[in-house]
Specification:
two-stranded antiparallel ribbon; globular; about 0% strand; transmembrane; 4 strands; 14 helices; mainly alpha; transmembrane helix; two-stranded antiparallel sheet; Branched-chain amino acid ABC transporter permease; membrane; ABC_transp_permease
Amino acid sequence: MIYRENGQFKTSYRADQQIFPIAQDRIAIALLLAVAFIAVPMLASDYLFRAILIPLVIMSLAALGVNILVGYCGQISLGSGAFMAVGAYGAYNFFVRLDGLPLIPALLLGGLCATFFGILFGLPSLRVKGLYLAVATLAAQFFADWMFLRIKWFTLDTPSGSVSVANLQVFGLPIDTATSKYLFCLSVLVVMALLAKNLVRGAIGREWMAIRDMDVAASVIGIRPMYAKLSAFAVSSFIIGVAGALWAFVYLGSWEPGAFSVDMSFRLLFMVIIGGLGSIMGSFFGAAFIVVLPIALNQFLPALAGLFGLTISTAAIVHAEFMIFGALIVWFLIVEPHGLAKLWSIAKQKLRLWPFPH
């Protein structure tokens, strides 16, 4: 009754090919955007912005980029942290060295730097796949760590490799409060998600999915594996690079190469696995799960131990987080390999039939 499609007729190809063909989806997305852009800035506290919402929005953008490469094109990557680092330091060098350069062009140029870096380390995908490709992309992580720590030019000759930015502005408006940072990051996420959704719906997205399913058969029907794989690396690296620049400029403000370690790459991969491979919505679900779960455990575990008259240390909470992460990843791989996005899709299918099963 709630999610019925009866009576929603399409009278043109344009109406049939729109992103949200069901009216309920369009209404839900409009309400969600209204809440995110209007209600949340009015109601959320400064702590909620800085601890949850801003990291959630930026990590959703990074997970979106990883999902394009891993979920849609099937190319396993463990170098996402390196792409974020290249985007962050590339944007920093353009922003500092080019006097008067606005923030948005600096972020886009940082994303382009990550694009070229991703294409360079995506070249092994033309010859290897699977775990071999994962190791090849992992090399990008170690190379980026060495490059930004040893080559002082990237960090303006600072001994520790730590850099910082200040006085950020967009169209003359300062980006200094938690609310303005959240709205700016959310705007970038909405634009990037819309572009990514249109890409995966188009011809290039179908090429990525054909390569993912069976690259030999894809090449037989005329798809160029080199073009498809490198374009996936390019688009994915660009989105991840922009996310890395936002993470450094907006969230951290001051950072060093350790901020984009291999742990970041694994976290992004876990977001995609838990959220759902090959799903734009799954990127948001996975990022929300990974960002919110540690904070929830920090609040829940001490309260649970207090009910039994016990005390739990901070180190024990951290170990519990790792164990729960590992258990959930194994559970999702066994029970629901398509992640939270598949559960959401099943729920929508149930609503289409409820309360009539026929």
